[in-house]
Design brief:
Elements lengths: L20 H9 L3 H13 L3 H15 L2 H16 L3 H7 L5 H7 L12 H8 L11 H20 L6 H24 L1 H12 L5 H17 L5 H14 L1 H9 L4 H17 L1 H8 L5 H11 L8 H12 L6 H26 L13 H5 L2 H17 L1 H11 L1 H5 L8 H15 L4 H9 L4 H10 L5 H15 L3 H15 L6 H47 L1 H13 L43 H23 L6 H9 L2 H19 L4 H11 L1 H7 L5 H9 L1 H11 L1 H5 L2 H14 L12 H6 L2
Helix pairs in contact: 1-4, 3-4, 8-9, 11-14, 13-14, 14-15, 14-17, 16-17, 16-18, 17-20, 20-23, 23-26, 26-28, 27-28, 29-32, 31-35, 32-38, 33-38, 34-35, 34-38
Protein name: Serine/threonine-protein phosphatase 4 regulatory subunit 3-like central domain-containing protein
GO molecular function: protein phosphatase activator activity
Organism: Citrus clementina (Clementine)
């Protein structure tokens, strides 16, 4: 209560004495959020707070006052958990840092005392590869290490995420500060590379300098992006890649690993820096060292690093033209053969088991190296298809890679299958024919059959290969596999993939047989089709009147005249080919109907029935109510010229399509038969004569037919023409039912 105000606000801290440690501990650990902010403010305002607390810590340590040391541990831990950057800046200074770490050695939850100060003073050695003369840089380096040790070792169990993030930001800021000061010190950088190049420098010193260079490049990630790029360009100009080239030739495997790490840092930052060096004359050996490192057994998992570097250098999607061609040309001419030779030397001869072979490269080559070589080859197939095709076809590379199917490691056999699958994904006809011609899938089929019914990765990889060939419809491979290996694969036909594969093979055979039959019949069929097309073109191009009639009908399609019975008048065409002239609204079912040609004898026999049916229709039509004269006048005076053209086009259509053989005769017989109607259609008579003519047409026609029945029966062609003419003249439209088809009008039924 003494240290709190009336509103329970913390007014001041208790005095730092041994007797007040419980009160200070309670104030630090049991305060709320508001009190924590006030506590932070009070600690920062008291300049001697931490100095007095550390003096009390040393007294307790000298007196071996374990209870007091435990309370001081909890007080320091609580203050650190306040997560105040200003407090961190104070306690992480050079004066207090070691005492703060010492106070954290007495954790009451740990049965024995920790010895963090002893470790930092005696066991941690600061290796100075090159003297750093700036005391501020040295101070930041030491502080960064101690803060990291505090975060990762001393308080690893008790820190929350917010405090850890704050400590990481301190480390990150210190790294950026150190690298910025060092990179701006031109004397320091020049001295560093001068020592690396000097032949008098001891081997151990060179190793330390390379490790320092690696750490220096790694810490540069704390800089901003622009500063990182500038630093890496400066290091390249100073000759860092020459230093790495020398490091890769070292017998020290750890130094080789450090060199590859430096290259990966450059590739992650700016790959073009390394590529521009490799294409130079002095940079060519570096590419060879990378290939050599990929096939060398280092005893550790370093082969993936070489693989990643080579993939970045050979990536055709990010390379510019000149760099790409040069790097790829160097790789294919000088180094691809080395990788293939490793595969051939590591595989046992045919018929000899892996376990029986002793000595040589077979035992020395690690399976991981062979797997990485296959990965790089698959990468090259995807990125350099043309060069891969030429190289593979000339040097039989596929045959040599498939030697991996003889290895006892199943994942190497799967790697070979994956390599073949990648090649086939290019859909290159030359490579596919190369597979068929040289029987290259035999090792894969043999490995699949030898694997038996075991459901493993090899089984799935081969089945997926067959499924891909089937889905992509690679017919030559389908026929090749079934023709060559079905006797071996028939035992696995119960598998859905192989069953579908066999079905695909049968479909290919059927399609090839069908194609042969079609090709043998095709010439005559094509000639017939051409003749039909020619006939149709001649027909449609022959008559300009038909085009005119079609255009006029299109204009009248929206405003058709209406007859007295309310049915829209439709001027139907009698020709099955004249669909373009007239649209049929009601006769959709009969639009494709084509009446068969009729002989003359059949026509004469049918005309008798036609005459009788027409007489009945005329009588029924004459009994209906007459159309008003005004409506008829409007209907008949509406565009008689277009009606004329329709009549002419339909006569031409009938003469060509229905009865072409009697064109002349029908036209001669049509003239006397339509004399009394032509005045209602033509332009020479006036409209009153047309109306009178249309009113009396039915009775005149009936009298005329009674007088000359024999003449009408003897010319059936004229009958068809006359019925069409009556439809066009307008007064006999009601004689044909609205739902009757044009063919019914032609046949008179």
């Amino acid at each position: 209560e003494t240290f709190h105000s009336m509103n329970s606000e913390l007014r001041e801290l208790p005095p730092i004495e041994l007797s007040t440690l419980p009160l200070i501990l309670k104030t630090v650990t049991e305060s709320g959020i508001a009190d924590q902010m006030r506590l932070t403010e009070l600690i920062l305002n008291d300049q001697d707070f931490f100095r007095k607390l550390m003096d009390l810590f040393r007294i307790c340590e000298d007196l071996e006052n374990i209870d007091g040391l435990h309370m001081i541990f909890k007080i320091i831990k609580g203050i650190i958990l306040l997560n105040s950057p200003q407090i961190f800046e104070k306690i992480f200074g050079d004066e207090l840092m070691m005492d703060i770490i010492g106070s954290l050695e007495y954790d009451p939850d740990v049965p024995h005392v920790q010895h963090h100060r002893n470790f930092l003073k005696e066991h941690v050695v600061f290796k100075e590869a090159i003297p750093i003369r700036d005391p501020l840089v040295l101070s930041k380096i030491h502080q960064t290490y101690r803060v990291g040790y505090l975060k990762d070792v001393v308080l690893a169990r008790v820190l929350d995420e917010a405090t850890v993030a704050n400590l990481n930001s301190i480390i990150h800021g210190n790294n950026a500060y150190v690298v910025s000061l060092l990179k701006d010190d031109s004397t320091f950088i020049q001295e560093l590379f001068a020592r690396l190049r000097s032949p008098t420098t001891l081997e151990e010193s060179k190793k330390n300098l390379v490790h320092f260079l690696h750490e220096f490049c790694g810490l540069s990630k704390s800089l901003q992006m622009v500063q990182q790029l500038r630093l890496f360009r400066d290091l390249m100009n100073e000759g860092i890649f020459d230093i790495v080239t020398d490091a890769l030739q070292s017998q020290d495997k750890k130094l080789v690993l450090t060199g590859t790490d430096i290259l990966i840092l450059f590739l992650n930052q700016d790959p073009n820096l390394l590529r521009s060096y490799v294409v130079r004359q002095e940079g060519i050996p570096l590419l060879g060292l990378l290939v050599k490192g990929m096939i060398t057994d280092f005893g550790e998992d370093m082969h993936c690093q070489f693989l990643e570097i080579l993939r970045s250098l050979l990536d055709s999607y990010t390379l510019s033209g000149a760099q790409r061609d040069t790097i790829i040309e160097i790789f294919y001419e000088k180094h691809l053969g080395q990788l293939i030779d490793v595969i051939t030397a590591s595989c046992p001869p045919e018929g000899i088991a892996q376990s029986a072979s002793s000595g040589g490269r077979v035992e020395s080559t690690k399976p991981e190296i062979l797997s990485n070589i296959c990965e790089l080859l698959c990468f090259c197939v995807l990125h350099h298809p043309y060069r891969i095709k030429c190289n593979f076809l000339l040097n039989n590379v596929v045959d040599k890679v498939l030697l991996l199917t003889r290895r006892r490691e199943k994942y190497l056999v799967v790697a070979a299958v994956r390599f073949v699958r990648t090649i086939l994904s290019r859909h290159d006809e030359h490579l596919i024919n190369h597979f068929v011609k040289n029987n290259l899938l035999k090792p894969i089929v043999d490995a699949f059959v030898a694997n038996g019914n075991r459901y493993n990765l090899l089984n799935s990889a081969v089945l997926e290969l067959f499924e891909y060939i089937r889905k992509e419809n690679l017919k030559s491979l389908v026929k090749y596999i079934v023709d060559s290996f079905w006797n071996q694969l028939v035992n696995f036909e119960y598998l859905a993939s192989l069953h579908s594969f066999k079905v695909k093979y049968e479909q290919c055979l059927e399609s090839s047989g069908t194609n042969n039959n079609v090709n043998s019949v095709d010439p005559r069929k094509r000639n017939d089709e051409r003749a039909l097309e020619k006939e149709e073109e001649d027909y449609f191009n022959d008559s300009d009147e038909e085009d005119t009639a079609s255009a006029s009908h299109t204009q009248r399609a929206q405003a058709q005249p209406v007859l007295s019975n309310g049915v829209a008048a439709s001027y139907s065409s009698l020709s099955p080919r004249s669909g373009g002239l007239v649209d049929y609204d009601d006769d959709e079912d009969d639009e494709d109907y084509r009446p068969p040609p009729r002989k003359q004898s059949e026509t004469l026999e049918e005309d008798e029935g036609t005459m009788d049916s027409l007489r009945l229709k005329r009588k029924s039509a004459s009994s209906k109510e007459k159309e008003p004269e005004l409506v008829k006048k409007q209907r008949l005076s509406k565009n008689p010229k277009s009606r004329d053209s329709v009549f002419a086009a339909l006569c031409s259509t009938l003469s060509q399509a229905v009865l072409p053989s009697k064109k002349n005769a029908s036209s001669m017989q049509l003239t006397p038969h339509t004399d009394d109607r032509s005045k209602g259609v033509g332009e020479q008579e006036d409209s009153s004569n047309s109306i009178n003519s249309s009113n009396n047409s039915s009775s005149d026609e009936e009298i005329h037919r009674d007088k000359e029945p024999t003449a009408s029966r003897s010319c059936s062609d004229c009958m068809h023409g006359g019925s069409d003419n009556r439809q066009l003249s307008g007064e006999d439209c009601a004689l044909i039912p609205p739902k009757s088809s044009p063919e019914m009008a032609v046949n008179g039924t």
